[in-house]
Specification:
Layout lengths: L4 H14 L22 H12 L2 H7 L3 E5 L12 E5 L4 H4 L3 E9 L3 E10 L2 E10 L3 H15 L6 H21 L26
């Protein structure tokens, strides 16, 4: 649809830079391990913030299960066998206010998790990388900490400004860097709420 694997990866790379994700290098569209493909917890938080602004994505991310019919020619679904797929994000099933967003694991990266939740008009994003397999519990603990902090968490404008500054530094540094992967401070995670919304995030 995007003109092939390379064109699709290039499109994702341009989008990442547009969001200020200076630590991200896109090699394939699956997100699976590949030489040279890297990102950071901070960049994943930026992607999550953009995703939360898209109702189509949030609808998918909060769907716990979906049933669809098998192939066939019968017009009525009841006459065809059905299959059900389950959302593997256990945060949705166990954390009040959870709104997504993405869990994953690869042999190189280990466990990864982007967890989002909204309570009392406030939204937070947590990103974990190189974690063990029980990532949703660690995410829940960090969300508890964030909600307990309430207004003491950094406001949206403050953090978005920091994101813009980091992006500019990262893009300038990228021109001088070799292929050594993301910069050493790339593990910080957190970002503001989606543009146009009132919640703050960290």
């Amino acid at each position: 649809l995007a003109g092939g694997q390379q064109e699709a990866a290039d499109t994702l790379q341009r989008k990442a830079h547009a969001l200020g994700a200076a630590d991200t290098q896109v090699v394939n569209t699956s997100g699976l391990d590949a030489p040279g493909q890297v990102s950071s917890a901070y960049d994943l938080a930026l992607f999550a913030r953009a995703a939360l602004a898209d109702r189509r994505i949030t609808t998918l991310a909060t769907t716990r299960s979906y049933t669809f019919p098998a192939g066939g020619t019968a017009l009525r679904r009841s006459d065809r066998r059905s299959y059900q797929i389950q959302n593997h994000n256990r945060l949705l099933f166990n954390y009040p206010g959870a709104t997504g967003l993405k869990n994953g694991w690869t042999s190189t990266a280990g466990g990864s998790f982007i967890g989002t939740a909204t309570r009392g008009g406030r939204t937070y994003i947590v990103t974990l990388l190189r974690a063990d397999t029980n990532t949703w519990r660690a995410t829940a603990a960090l969300l508890d900490w964030a909600f307990a902090g309430g207004a003491s968490a950094a406001g949206e404008q403050e953090v978005v400004a920091d994101a813009d500054q980091r992006a500019q530094r990262g893009l300038r540094r990228r021109h001088a860097d070799t292929e050594e992967g993301p910069r050493p401070d790339a593990g910080w995670s957190g970002c503001g709420a989606p543009p146009g919304s009132s919640p703050a995030s960290w």
